[in-house]
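Quick note —
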Amino acid sequence: MQRARNIIMTIVPAQSRPSVVTGRLTDKEKGPSALRMTWTDEELVARTIGGDADSFNELIHRWERPIYALAYRQIGREEDARDVCQDTFLRAYRGLNGFRGQAKFSSWLYRIALNLCRDWMRRERRTPVVQAPEDMDLMDLAAAREPSESIEDRVGRHDLTRAVERAMALLPEEQRTAIVLKEYQGLTFQEIADLLGCPLSTVKTRLYQGLTVLRRELARAGVSAAAR
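Predicted structure written out below.
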């Protein structure tokens, strides 16, 4: 997502802007860039604070897709999700000095994104409506490179995705957030509890209640247990 990377252009002086933003690395820069890929998030944070702007580019490269996915699944609008993703990294960059390392950098980043999603929903005063993907083109389906998967299977999986998105949009924010963080983002119960600042039992309850509603709504939509 080039747009998220471009936020550095607005907050880093021209002489120290990461070359990765322009997509061009000199031979001198290729070595350190490859090395950055082996550093932990916390090491990259420390180096960014020390003035190495390229290190923050590496953090964006690592986390822009998960943050965008989180924002999209929370608010359901592509353009707004991109804005939230961009604002998340902008706020993170400006607030790095306040990152104390008491939680993982990724958890800190998720918290910023979730707060921005809540701000969006309060500001817009509307519930998220997950946009269904555009209808699939049958010629594209016929040209699929997975011969083991029939057109019927692909269409069925597409319909299931749409049904899940519609059902997710009906959930209360707390339940939807628990499902997104656990089932989509792959966080543990403890990580979610730390991220949301609530007891472990509360996270499990929200997830159980959310999945119960989700299964009920899918059943109403005619999605079989086998398909799920």
